[in-house]
Amino acid sequence: MSPDASPVSVNTPVTLREVAAAAGVSVATASKALNGQGRMTAETRERIRETARHLGFRPNSLAQSLLRKRSFTVGLLTNDTYGRFSLPLMAGVSDALVDKGVSVFLCNVEDDTRLGQLHVEAMLDKRVDGIIATGKRIDRHLPVDLSNLRIPVIYAFTQPDAGAVGLVSDDAGGARLAVEHFLRLGRRRIAHVSGPASFAVVHARAEAYRDVLKENGLAVSEPLLGAWSEAWGHEAVEKLFGSAGREGWPDAIFCGNDQIARGVIDALRERGIRVPDDVGVIGFDNWEIVAEATRPPLTSVDMNLSTLGREAGLALLSLVDGQPAAPGIRKLPCRLVVRQSCGSPPE
Amino acid sequence: MSPDASPVSVNTPVTLREVAAAAGVSVATASKALNGQGRMTAETRERIRETARHLGFRPNSLAQSLLRKRSFTVGLLTNDTYGRFSLPLMAGVSDALVDKGVSVFLCNVEDDTRLGQLHVEAMLDKRVDGIIATGKRIDRHLPVDLSNLRIPVIYAFTQPDAGAVGLVSDDAGGARLAVEHFLRLGRRRIAHVSGPASFAVVHARAEAYRDVLKENGLAVSEPLLGAWSEAWGHEAVEKLFGSAGREGWPDAIFCGNDQIARGVIDALRERGIRVPDDVGVIGFDNWEIVAEATRPPLTSVDMNLSTLGREAGLALLSLVDGQPAAPGIRKLPCRLVVRQSCGSPPE
After folding, report:
1. Which CATH architecture fits B73-170+305-333?
2. What phi and psi values does residue A32 have, to the nearest 5 degrees?
3. What's the burial of B198, exposed, middle or buried (CB within 10 Å: 0-12/13-18/19+)?
């Protein structure tokens, strides 16, 4: 089925997935064949074993665990199949799992407890090896109780149950990256325009913004909180530049998301204020379709969500493999993607 | 488990899903209990049957088929888990299926034939009842052969195999909606700015644009083909308004997607050309995050992708139920979402 499957280098361990691909069967079938389980013809079993011998397959401890009891399927529960946050995260989960020959069973529970319960039951029926729960925001629970399942659960970009393992982005660290970048470029009057006060990340980022300015002995102006929209970016520029004299204007604006930043930049251009010459702007999310279309292209904080998803997938596999994990929330670092909206360091 | 489960009105048939929810079990378990199959305690089976009796459950022909042989799971294959086209489509599929108590098993095959083969094998291992294939664009095949599976397959927003059932948006019809809307508003010099010539939809939409203008005895200017980007929208405005005298300017621009339209509107504003007073603009895709943030908000053609996904889900269930379907491509209508970028009809 895969005529190009050839023995791989002796330096890289052959995976069960490679055996399966070379034999033209699923990973689950290959697992059963090598483990002497499952229903299949003797010819098929022998052919798969011969393929494994030919490739030099050596089951490692994870693989042996897989051989014993696994279905090679994990459930991914989300209430956000539209969102641009959960999508890269889900892609990262898939990438991590497919490398181990594991398929993902995605269910959208929306905001419906009964629907969530049905989907969890269906996942248990399918004997998934574990469940990853993800959502729209890190300060909300999914509308389903996962605390008493018989299988491992990892939470990623959603509020974990008590005693569980949760992975989230380090929003305060991301905000630090932005403000410290402005400082390195010589900006000193830095404003912060962000989303609604009902979001925990708004406060985490605003606090980091204040902390960095205080640590550097600079004036802190109160963050302007509004909506996650371009329209709010326009409005915030009116507030910041409408009344004060030129000497009161900020020389940098750290925005809570890329849409706000885009609105800010458009509004500045329409006032004849130059970006980045007069004012530097940084966004948050690094949503490329927005950040790259902004004029000039937008420097933005990236939450590394696909890495976060990848880590969640690997953490789940460790739990499935019987390795204990410390409960609690683990924060993964953000990174700053520099484009043209902040300019170069001063001479 | 669901204390709020109460007998439903006698006018709406009770579904298996409702029985399952009321009994606090999965649909598959409820199915097995009512069908005398599966492993469970006699107490559980009797409890589920009592719940079904209490609710007045009557298996219909589809439900009876379900009771016989179904796993209540379908596979959704895609090579586009990021895309804004497949996401609403996938949500529509899920909505349609969850109404029937069916869970969706989503796999991303990327552009990798071996990965695709592995995922299809995993789906067959899990005994999915059928597969829906969807992708990034309607003129490309998924990188996996689904033509000889033992289970039903429906293609949605991707190129179907010969002899299969495919559902796609009616792009020509969508373009007609846009151009005819301009004509009703009294616009007569209508330009078309679209994406790359390598896309089949670019030609389908351009041909419909030409047809409508010819049918109305109006001048057809050659469509400007470029990229699916805001930057191309800016560039196209330079081409259309840069050299010609004012009398050569179009009074309407039909754009191939919303990003182009946004670039067009921004570029017009920067030239002091008023939208919609001087020039009306229509986009395509109705990507709300773009269409609603455009100033003025953008009138756009919506491909009704979640309806398309819903229809694909229902078509798959019909096939699973043994009802034959005519092979070939079925085009589903678009609709025009009117916002403020075209103005009102002339007095």
Report:
1. 3-Layer(aba) Sandwich (3.40)
2. -65, -40
3. exposed
Q: CB within 8 A of A333, min separation 6: which ones?
A: A170, A173, A174, A304
Instruction: Tell me: ipTM over 0.85.
Output: no
- All CATH 3.40.50.2300 domain ranges of chain B, comma separated, are 73-170+305-333, 171-302
Neighbours of A320 (CB within 10 A): 22
CATH T-level assignment (fold) for domain A171-303: Rossmann fold (3.40.50)
Q: Are A147 and A161 in contact (CB under 8 A)?
A: yes
Quick one: how far is CA B32 from the chain centroid? Answer: 33
Task: Please give the CATH number for the structural domain made up of B171-302.
Answer: 3.40.50.2300
What would the pLDDT profile of A255-292 be if each residue is shown by its tens digit? 999 999 999 999 999 999 999 999 999 999 999 989 99
pLDDT digits (tens, 9 = 90+) for B201-211: 999 999 999 99
Give the DSSP letter of residue B135: -
Rank A136-140, A148-152, B156-160 by mean pLDDT and report only the highest. Answer: B156-160
Mean pLDDT of chain A: 87
Q: What are the DSSP calls for B24-76, one per residue?
A: TS-HHHHHHHHHT-SS--HHHHHHHHHHHHHHT----HHHHHHHHH--SEEEE
pLDDT of residue A122: 77
- pLDDT tens per residue, range B293-324: 999 999 999 999 999 999 999 999 999 888 88
Q: What's the pLDDT tens digit per position in A158-190? A: 999 888 999 999 999 999 999 999 999 999 999
Residue extent(s) of CATH 3.40.50.2300 domains in chain A: 73-170+305-333, 171-303
Residue-level pLDDT at B267? 97
Chain B CB contacts of A73 under 8 Å are 122, 126
Cβ B87–A82 below 8 Å, yes or no? Answer: yes
Token pair for residue A221? 């102006």
* A61, A318 Cβ separation under 8 angstroms: no
Interface of A with B in 52-111 (CB under 8 A): 72-73, 81-82, 87-88, 90-91, 94, 98, 101, 103-108
Question: For chain B, what's the residue count?
Answer: 347
Q: Which fold has domain B16-69?
A: 434 Repressor (Amino-terminal Domain) (1.10.260)
Q: What pLDDT does residue B105 have? A: 78
Which of residues 219 through 258 in chain A touch B, CB cutoff 8 A? 229-231
Q: How far is A328 from chain B (nearest CA, A)?
A: 28
Interface of B with A in 16-35 (CB under 8 A): 17, 20-21, 24-29
Over its C-alpha atoms, chain A yields an Rg (Å, rounded) of: 25
What's the confidence (pLDDT) of residue A318?
Answer: 92
Distance from CA of A215 to the nearest CA of B (A): 37
User: What was the pLDDT predicted at A3?
Assistant: 40
**How far is residue A247's CA from residue B268's CA, in Å, rounded to a whole number?**
33
Taking the C-alpha atoms of residue A177 and residue A188, their distance in angstroms, rounded to an integer, is 15
For chain A, give every residue range classified as CATH 1.10.260.40: 16-69
Chain A with chain B: Cβ pairs closer than 8 A = 110
| Amino acid, single-letter form, for residue B275 | V
pLDDT on residue B79: 85
